[in-house]
Amino acid sequence: MKNCIEINDVSWYREGKAVLKDIRWQVEEGQHWAILGLNGSGKTTLLNLLNGYIWPTTGSIRVLGHKYGEVDLREMRKSIGWVSSSFQERIHGNEKAQNLVVSGKFASIGLYEKPMDEDYDRAGAFMEQLRCGHLKDRTYQTCSQGEKQKLLIARALMASPKLLILDEATNGLDFISKEGLLDSIYELAGLPDAPNMLYVTHHTEEILPIFSHSLLIRRGEVFMQGLTQEVLNSKDLTDFFEMPVNLDWNRERAWLSRK
Ligand SMILES: Nc1ncnc2c1ncn2[C@@H]1O[C@H](COP(=O)(O)OP(=O)(O)OP(=O)(O)O)[C@@H](O)[C@H]1O
């Protein structure tokens, strides 16, 4: 089995302290992982390393078979989709939803190259898949938070990424919108040529059964990693959060409450 991600003994220091320390993590091709960590634990730093926006102080990184340092990162990033709610602020509000999605093919914000009819057809198909096809002629700024997230995922899919990072994708969504988005993410995993997905979240109950593995990060270090069903349990999460918690599995999702 080939590895999609190999992070070997990676540390990243800033201001004399380790923001990430001795990270060892491997994601096999075809696996989908959840990444769980408290605020400031180092998740965004890890994603920045994966995308080559920052460089490890020590250790090595290999993504999709390419060792960082020996590969053109701009080319690499075309294979990595990163959907983050913070990215929403960088979108021109008066962009038409359909054009925003199509622009994902060129991995740029705004349309600079002339798309072809088939690009619009593909964009339309992804929008249908994510149940936001009806928005195609709407401007981005008139879409709700949940609709914007779906458009950004459709946009990321246009580049046919091999790795898709969903970074706090449900931020600001109400219950119905959140569950709708989770349904769409679940369905994405079932598509032929589905990308490997990483799902970064603060909420255990959002970790769908497709995320077979989980990585728990605490204070810049890997606290635990492995099969989600094994990693997510009351005892280990009590240690992880340093607060007594109960974890109940219901409909293959892990619901956390305070003891
Ligand atoms: N360039 C930097 N210089 C100094 N400290 C940094 C730098 N970047 C991140 N940090 C610190 O490293 C820690 C981890 O930050 P990071 O953004 O990776 O956390 P996170 O897990 O993504 O948090 P959140 O869930 O709140 O987004 C934080 O304490 C942050 O202040």
UniProtKB/TrEMBL annotation:
Origin superkingdom: Bacteria
Keyword Protein biosynthesis: no
GO MF term list: ATP binding; ATP hydrolysis activity
SMART domains per record: AAA (SM00382)
Keywords, sorted A to Z: ATP-binding, Nucleotide-binding
Domain ABC transporter intervals: 5-244
Keyword Transcription: no
Name of the protein described by the UniProt record: Iron complex transport system ATP-binding protein
